[in-house]
Model the fold of this input.
Amino acid sequence: MLKRSAVLVAVSLCALVPLVHGSCFHSLVEKGATHCQDLTDKNWHAVGSPWTNSKCIKCSCKTRSMKCCDSMGRVGASNPKDCAVEYDYTTCTF
Done:
């Protein structure tokens, strides 16, 4: 349990200052960690595993980092004011 707490603290601290690249972010994982915690759903995932969380963000857990990328290509401030975007998080479409 102590290892998971240490990993949680490390991931949380790294999440405060993510390395942003487009719609992806990387978080460092504590050396020797066996799992990464999804920052959205708070679920734990084993090193080497990929997953898609409830907000359609695709993540992968590596030995030294966790990488997550938005898989829906969210519509930003450039859409017209009279246009409403509805996201379907069940099918990861909009």
